[in-house]
């Protein structure tokens, strides 16, 4: 439905002079002034970037971020937004129709291994996850939510229409808005996750169509599904929120971020040789930047250089950023400059591993599993690790368990270092059969260098026979737990909001210097529910009918059957004679 | 998820590819795949589905759009798509938006038997239901001509019961025969509707054209898929409305006090700990509570009698 804008020549003049990286000059050199086109519609701007982080195990993590900023107000009374340029029309219409304040949707295949790969830039749980903040002018949030999930399932070719009240929760303290705003009344927040959702090319295709350049120019040419899905982890997400338009932060702008995180495995895709290149990862190289983008960059994390790996082609541009509590150094390849592409007009980065290194242990890590045996009861264990040597910090754990696992909250225990740890805040909303799932939120203080275990017992319910999926013996999924925390940072975080910050470091707003916000997702659980034997009715009918037919039928025949002597049939001549005799009224022959 | 149904998904996708190659856009195609083969962990080449064992053509491609997938492929959803009786919030890509000038191709593949086709290994659609659905479509003027292709065991039984006009049906096997759909796929891919001899095709294809108004031999496939648009020709000039006025941006003048907006604190610990419990919406008392109170009052008045009421009040 939304066709991206073609490459018309007006774009060069219409590009607004926003401040980009100070170290770069603009290619065309002309800075258009504010007074040039007073009749122009609201300004929008598109930036793209790719961050490549080599991992110590030989795998490689690539994170794409595409951001469109648009100064407009969808919800202004009386003004109907009808002119869309870079911002996709399908999403703009969704935002205005359902009065959405913030929308976050992600599709993930695979599980993020925090202990081996560190923290991701944008975390996401396996399957599909959708959380939305509505405006406080909405009167029927549930109705809007239901329609929104249906519309999004059409846009992204996913079965999001399976999101209904039985798997939607309303967190009371987690998932605060990531955008601008004052009031945070949690009645306008809805969160749902579908752990079973499969991510494949049909989800990537509409996602790519939302980009201004589509998949024809810029960094998006690298997004080939055959390579992207042949990976250990693949996650694509869309985040829409209101952000500050400038540094004074006096007015809002809408920000649409499309992120794609992928981790390529060394042995399945790399054939074991510790060497990666853009061609090996994506089967394409970069040839040009997207003409509609004001900035198009590739960052390679070289903090551990030169011991870990060697990067070619070399580039003089370096950038430092404080992200996830650590100061990292990046080599920058600016695609808007022609000299980046060299003689061959194509950029193919090559990374060759030289040695092994030790990765810094991530400070926060969580796991979850089901204990117990049999098909009646069980126990959910959530284990949270705090690897900081001397600092304690609080974490907010949110659990959303479907109604068919009936939790017994009186068995809830939280232990750290084999001692009871009482949470400072507990919010529990019990489930209602077939209406609402369980919601458990707890604020737990984690002691330094410790492991905290949260256990709760549950009982499995027997569903009605129509409620089972076609393959019930596969099991039923329980969505991931969400652990949100403000982790103490080793390096002072940057609280100033500047326009030239790279995209990967400006996703989560930073309020104080000493800590950074992180969200960790645990594994989803797969539990078996007691499954009836669906072939039983058919078997019973066959057996019963056989018994009735053979047993009772024979018995009935024996009792009621009478035998008669049957006279042999007469030859034809005698039959004719009998016919004449009948007419005459004379007794018949035998 | 049954991996041995890979060939059914491959068949469906090769027909999808052929139809797209003829120029039909994705907005005019409703694709339903019951199992996910391409991104299944058992697939050694993720995001690919091949229709032939020499793996020359990836029918999954890079631009596929599946409208119904996994558990959404049910008999109910299929019949609702055909008859158009979908809930109002269903997106356009999941609807069959056809009118009385549209020609429709329906291709079904899977496991079937005499008079039925299996959906998801747990439910079936019968030939009578299908015939009734087509009649509903005819009554509602949802098609001009309809081509129905079925590729299952005993597939010819599925079109025995059709009674609506302008239907043409093709099946890969007759009643009483099993269909080895591999060879049928190959022939469908070439899009030649020649009758396939027994020696090559193992099963005998069947067809039914008695309900079709035109002579099938004269209908070109490309002609069938091209639709006739409703065109209105006018000789009057029409004035286009004036362009939408862009929203007037209020410039930030010094007089108006503009407060700077801030981001929300992601984990306000103090605020969370001292959070007041939410005002719960008042619900009228549940049936159980009402019943309990009625019982208590009944027992009370039973024991003490109504006349004592005045002593209480």
Automatic annotation (TrEMBL), chain A:
GO terms for biological process: attachment of GPI anchor to protein. InterPro entries: PIG-T. GO terms for cellular component: GPI-anchor transamidase complex. Residues 12-31 have a biased composition (Basic and acidic residues). Residues 1-33 are annotated as: Disordered. Pfam families: Gpi16 (PF04113). This is GPI transamidase component PIG-T-like. It comes from Cyprinus carpio (Common carp).
Automatic annotation (TrEMBL), chain B:
GO terms for biological process: attachment of GPI anchor to protein; GPI anchor biosynthetic process; proteolysis. The chain crosses the membrane at residues 287-306. One of its GO terms (cellular component) is GPI-anchor transamidase complex. InterPro entries: GPI_transamidase, Peptidase_C13. Keywords: GPI-anchor biosynthesis, Membrane, Signal, Transmembrane, Transmembrane helix. Pathway: Glycolipid biosynthesis; glycosylphosphatidylinositol-anchor biosynthesis. The active site is at 111, 153 (nucleophile). It comes from the Eukaryota. One of its GO terms (molecular function) is GPI-anchor transamidase activity. Belongs to the peptidase C13 family. Heteropentamer. Part of the GPI-anchor transamidase complex, consisting of PIGK, PIGT, PIGS, PIGU and GAA1. Interacts with GPAA1. Interacts with PIGT; this interaction, via a disulfide link, stabilizes the expression of GAA1 and PIGK and links them to PIGS. This is GPI-anchor transamidase.
């Amino acid at each position: 439905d939304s066709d991206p804008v073609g490459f018309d020549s007006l774009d060069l003049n219409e590009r607004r002079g926003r401040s980009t990286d100070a170290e770069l000059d603009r290619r065309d050199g002309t800075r258009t002034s504010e007074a040039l086109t007073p009749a122009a519609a609201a300004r929008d701007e598109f930036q793209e970037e790719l961050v490549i982080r080599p991992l110590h195990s030989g795998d490689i993590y690539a994170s794409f971020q595409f951001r469109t900023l648009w100064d407009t107000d969808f919800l202004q009374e009386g003004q109907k937004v009808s002119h869309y340029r870079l911002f996709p029309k399908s999403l703009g219409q969704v935002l205005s129709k359902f009065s959405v304040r913030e929308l976050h949707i992600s599709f993930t295949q695979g599980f993020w291994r925090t202990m081996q790969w560190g923290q991701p830039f944008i975390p996401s749980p396996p399957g599909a996850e959708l959380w939305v903040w509505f405006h406080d002018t909405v009167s029927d949030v549930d109705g809007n939510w239901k329609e929104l999930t249906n519309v999004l399932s059409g846009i992204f070719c996913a079965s999001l229409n399976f999101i209904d009240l039985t798997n939607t929760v309303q967190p009371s303290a987690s998932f605060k808005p990531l955008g601008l705003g004052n009031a945070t009344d949690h009645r306008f927040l809805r969160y749902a996750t579908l752990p079973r959702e499969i991510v494949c090319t049909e989800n990537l295709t509409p996602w790519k169509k939302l980009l201004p350049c589509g998949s024809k120019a810029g960094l998006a040419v690298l997004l080939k599904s055959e390579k992207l899905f042949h990976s250990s982890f693949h996650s694509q997400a869309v985040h829409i929120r209101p952000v500050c338009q400038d540094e004074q932060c006096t007015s809002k702008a809408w920000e649409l971020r499309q992120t794609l995180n992928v981790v390529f495995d060394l042995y399945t895709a790399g054939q074991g040789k510790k060497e990666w290149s853009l061609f090996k990862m994506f089967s394409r190289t970069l040839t040009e930047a997207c003409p509609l983008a004001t900035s198009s960059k590739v960052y390679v994390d070289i903090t551990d250089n030169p011991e870990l790996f060697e990067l070619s082609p070399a580039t003089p541009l370096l950038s430092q950023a404080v992200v996830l509590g650590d100061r990292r150094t990046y080599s920058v390849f600016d695609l808007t400059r022609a000299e980046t592409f060299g003689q061959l007009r194509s950029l193919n980065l090559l990374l060759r591993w030289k040695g092994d290194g030790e990765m810094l242990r991530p400070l926060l890590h969580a796991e979850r599993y089901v204990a117990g045996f049999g098909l009646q009861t069980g126990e959910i264990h959530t284990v949270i690790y705090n690897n900081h040597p001397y600092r304690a910090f609080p974490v907010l754990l949110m659990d959303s368990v479907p109604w068919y696992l009936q939790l017994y909250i009186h068995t809830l225990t939280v232990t750290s270092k084999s001692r009871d740890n009482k949470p400072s805040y507990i919010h529990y909303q019990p489930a209602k059969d077939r209406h609402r799932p369980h919601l458990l939120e707890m604020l737990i203080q984690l002691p330094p260098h410790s492991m905290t275990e949260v256990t709760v017992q549950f009982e499995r319910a027997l569903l009605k026979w129509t409620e089972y999926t076609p393959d019930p013996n596969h099991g039923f999924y329980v969505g991931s737990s969400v652990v949100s925390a403000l982790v103490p940072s080793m390096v002072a975080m940057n609280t100033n909001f500047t326009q030239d910050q790279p995209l990967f470091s400006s996703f989560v707003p930073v309020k104080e210097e000493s800590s950074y916000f992180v969200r960790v997702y645990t594994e989803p659980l797969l539990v078996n529910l007691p499954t009836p034997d669906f072939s039983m009715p058919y078997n019973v009918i066959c057996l019963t009918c056989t018994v009735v037919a053979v047993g009772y039928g024979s018995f009935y025949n024996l009792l009621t059957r009478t035998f008669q002597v049957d006279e042999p049939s007469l030859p034809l001549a005698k039959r004719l004679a009998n016919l004449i005799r009948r007419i005459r009224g004379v007794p018949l022959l035998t | 998820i049954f991996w041995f149904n890979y060939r059914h998904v491959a068949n469906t996708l090769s027909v999808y590819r052929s139809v797209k190659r003829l120029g039909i856009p994705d907005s005019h195609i409703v694709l339903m795949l019951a199992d996910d083969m391409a991104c299944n962990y058992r697939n050694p080449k993720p995001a690919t589905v091949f229709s032939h064992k020499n793996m020359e053509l990836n029918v999954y491609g890079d631009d596929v759009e599946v409208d119904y997938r996994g558990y959404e492929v049910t008999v109910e959803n299929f019949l609702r798509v055909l008859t158009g009786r979908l809930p109002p919030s269903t997106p356009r890509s999941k609807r069959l938006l056809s009118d009385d000038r549209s020609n429709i191709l329906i291709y079904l593949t899977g496991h079937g038997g005499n008079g039925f086709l299996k959906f998801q290994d747990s439910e079936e659609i019968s030939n009578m239901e299908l015939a009734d659905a087509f009649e509903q479509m005819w009554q509602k003027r949802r098609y001009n001509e309809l081509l129905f292709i079925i590729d299952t065991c005993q597939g010819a039984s599925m079109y025995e019961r059709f009674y609506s006009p302008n239907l043409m049906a093709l099946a890969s096997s007759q009643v009483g025969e099993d269909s080895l759909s591999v060879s049928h796929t190959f022939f469908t891919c070439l899009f030649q509707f020649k009758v396939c001899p027994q020696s090559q095709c193992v099963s005998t294809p069947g067809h039914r054209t008695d309900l079709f108004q035109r002579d099938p031999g004269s209908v070109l496939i490309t002609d069938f898929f091209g639709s006739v648009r409703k065109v209105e020709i006018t000789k009057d000039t029409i004035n286009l409305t004036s362009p939408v006025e862009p929203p007037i941006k209020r410039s930030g003048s010094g007089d108006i006090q503009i407060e700077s907006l801030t981001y929300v604190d992601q984990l306000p610990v103090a605020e969370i700990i001292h959070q007041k419990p939410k005002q719960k919406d008042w619900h009228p008392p549940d049936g159980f509570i009402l019943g309990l109170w009625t019982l208590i009052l009944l027992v009370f008045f039973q024991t003490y009698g109504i006349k004592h009421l005045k002593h209480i009040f």
